[in-house]
Write a structure and sequence with these properties.
- By secondary structure, the protein is an alpha/beta fold.
- The protein has a single domain, classed as 2-Layer Sandwich (Nucleotidyltransferase, domain 5).
- Helices cover 38% and strands 20% of the residues.
- A hairpin with a 2-residue loop joins strand 3 and strand 4.
- The chain starts with 5 loop residues before the first helix and ends in an 8-residue tail after the last strand.
Length: 200
């Protein structure tokens, strides 16, 4: 915004047709009998070597409904020393969010009876979340590790592997092919509204 250049204008020209084509899209909510929290987390760690910035994102579903989502591109150089650390911090962020949502639902007298499922596409993160033997090699993320392990031990959370081709949070962190983007978008219940407005 402070110093626009030609590449910025080119990006804007790509975004505007998408926005125009999705003006009638909205988040659809459905009645869902089994109440359970399912989350997807993804981090695109320092993808561009020039900037060394990471993008992280997650989405949380309550039943079939998208309840919470987050994505952010770091404004500073990546603080994580590896992709595993970056992914683990991403999982820690979504576990904090789901812990807050579980407490909120309990206060609303709808306590969850099942553990929250958290999916990430990094096998090492899944292993690190439940294996006590690897802690010595990961002292710099010890707080996040202990927090997630406490949640796993209390059976509030299960961290599971989900291949990248099924990782819904990729919609926040990566440029996707149109078919995959459209599939992920519809899986998040973002679709054209069927409700008629006062003008329509």
């Amino acid at each position: 915004m402070h110093d626009p250049r030609e590449p910025h204008f080119a990006s804007l020209k790509r975004i505007l047709p998408y926005v125009q084509g999705t003006l009638d899209y909205g988040l659809q909510l459905y009645s869902s009998s089994p109440l359970s929290l399912v989350a997807n987390s993804d981090v695109d760690w320092a993808r561009y070597p020039i900037t060394s910035r990471s993008t992280s994102g997650y989405c949380v579903f309550l039943g079939n409904n998208l309840l919470s989502w987050f994505f952010k591109r770091q404004v500073t150089l990546s603080l994580s020393r590896s992709s595993v650390e970056a992914e683990y911090r991403g999982v820690a962020n979504v576990v904090v969010e789901t812990a807050w949502l579980r407490n909120l639902l309990r206060e609303l007298h709808y306590p969850l009876k099942t553990a929250t499922l958290v999916y990430c596409d990094n096998v090492n993160v899944v292993y690190l979340s439940s294996s006590p033997g690897q802690l010595q090699r990961a002292k710099h993320i010890e707080i996040d590790i202990r927090f997630i392990r406490d949640q796993v031990a209390a059976v509030h959370v299960h961290v599971l592997h989900d291949p990248s081709c099924y990782q819904l949070a990729d919609i926040f962190t990566k440029g996707l092919a149109y078919v995959l983007f459209d599939d992920f978008r519809s899986s998040m219940s973002l679709c054209p509204s069927s409700a008629r407005t006062a003008r329509g």
